[in-house]
Design a protein that fits this description.
six-stranded mixed β-sheet; 10 helices; 283 residues; alpha/beta; 12 strands
């Protein structure tokens, strides 16, 4: 069997629900040639959108562009119907919260003080710290299970604990859009499930729209309501997991032969590898 060519990039879908965040004909890079070209992506309102694909395919680059951390070389990121470049930074910070792939905190800062920084977009000369801010911080700490760590120094915590503290900071920001770059990094299975349960609760019952870069395919298919699937800087497919995922797609994107069966718990796609890349190339 020979490698199958990439599928043509699908046409931009017309979402059935409003789209608070989208990329239009994006070309993205870091000054040394494009990482991605002509990307068209839609994030449906109220969805939990997972961006998946092999390493170095452009997932985090796309997330950085959607958050305005990376300016497109061409094309437009649209937030609430407006070019994101035209919006003041504080306006964006009240609409969109970002958990980057790696974050650093000031030496000696406590968990509560770090999470409280998520309230800065809501502060002004006319509005200083308030009981509403205290409530938001307490809720964010509780939601991520780190209330008992509030008085601890962040640099004393384990990697998994720190990841939950950073997620708490983003939640304290109380933005309707949350962008999470590999939010389950450093977490064991129990805490991965806790974070993904929290994400599902936010989009199903909390009115949030989430976009997350994820690596575990079966967890992405179980939790996400919408997928953006990438390979080599291109969007290969977009849509609900049950509508777009099959064995042929996974083999094409990851170069790994597999079975794709219904998840016995959710009925969503469930991928079982049947060999590694070498077995596919020698077939």
């Amino acid at each position: 069997m020979t490698d199958s060519p990439l599928r043509p990039t699908p046409a931009t879908p017309t979402p059935a629900t409003p789209t608070p965040l989208a990329g239009r004909d994006l070309t993205l890079g870091y000054g040394h040639g494009p990482v991605s070209e002509h990307l068209d992506v839609e994030v449906p309102e109220g969805s939990f959108t997972a961006i998946i694909g092999p390493n170095a395919c452009g997932k985090s680059t796309l997330l950085r562009a959607l958050s305005r951390l990376l300016a497109p070389e061409d094309g437009t990121v649209v937030l609430d119907g407006r070019d994101i470049r035209d919006l003041p930074s504080k306006t964006i910070a009240r609409r969109l919260g970002l958990l980057p792939q790696s974050s650093t905190s000031p030496s000696g800062i406590t968990v509560r003080d770090l999470v409280a920084r998520g309230r800065f977009p809501h502060q002004s000369l006319l509005r200083q710290w308030s009981p509403e801010d205290d409530r938001a911080v307490a809720h964010a700490l509780a939601a991520t299970g780190v209330t008992d760590l509030a008085g601890r120094r962040v640099d004393e915590l384990s990697g998994g604990q720190r990841q939950r503290v950073w997620l708490s900071l983003v939640l304290a920001q109380e933005t309707p859009l949350l962008l999470l770059d590999e939010p389950t990094t450093f977490l064991d299975l129990t805490h991965q499930l806790e974070v993904l349960d929290l994400c599902r609760g936010l989009h199903e019952g909390g009115g949030y729209t989430l976009v997350a870069v994820l690596h575990d395919l079966n967890l992405a298919f179980r939790y996400a309501s919408h997928l953006i699937i990438m390979k080599q800087g291109r969007v290969i497919a977009q849509g609900r997991p049950e509508d777009v995922v099959d064995a042929a797609l996974i083999e094409e994107v990851y170069d790994v032969p597999c079975l794709c069966l219904p998840d016995p718990v959710t009925g969503r796609p469930w991928v079982i590898p049947t060999g590694g890349p070498d077995s596919r190339r020698s077939a």
